[in-house]
Amino acid sequence: MNPFIDINNRELLKDLLSSLQPDTKPLWGAMKPQQMVEHLIDQVQYTNGKKNGTCDVPANEAEKSKNKGIYTDSRIPKNVVLGTLPDHYEYDNLQAAIDQLMTELLVFDEYFNSTNAVAIHGGFGPMNYYEWQIWHNKHFTHHLMQFGLLPE
Fold first, then answer.
1. Which residues, in sequence order, are CB contacts of 121 under 8 Å at separation 6+?
2. At 96, is the secondary structure helix, strand, or coil?
3. Which residue, of 13, 22, 95, 97, is most buried by count of CB atoms within 10 Å of its CB?
4. Closest listed residue to residue 39, CA positions, set 86, 106, 99, 93
5. 42 in a domain, yes or no?
6. What is the count of structural domains for the chain?
7. For residue 9, what are the contacts with CB-CB under 8 A and spacing of at least 6?
8. What is the reported pTM?
9. Per the domain annotation, does 97 fall within a domain?
10. Which of 56-65, 106-115, 129-138 is predicted with the least confidence, judged by mean pLDDT?
11. DSSP string for residues in 64-90
């Protein structure tokens, strides 16, 4: 059994996210619900043609990291901090952010279905649609668990 959510099951994904309240406390970390959703929007935009990523590690290190991060059932560790949280929201409210995330996922599908694209992951290097689906599944699962929307 796959231990990760399938981002292609958009109805389930939207239902889980819509069960969040703006004041839901995370089980770990400092993100608020809307910060988490806006973080996912930002990350998906790097994979749907709206933003361009760069690989921040040497190619051989990226390949090793990709093999572990994509081609194993390893989970993203809790409390990974990769920068500071923004001090303002991009969207008017949590539901607007969730709706935008669902739109960005549709653009992600269209981007890869209309081109032979690859998108760059900062630690894994170039990845195709299949690899990005795996990574998004893991990343979304991580944050859904963070807010108690999926069991750990």
1. 46, 53, 55, 62, 66, 127, 132, 135
2. helix
3. 97
4. 86
5. yes
6. 1
7. none
8. 0.95
9. no
10. 106-115
11. HHHHHHHSS-PPPPTT---SPPPSS-S
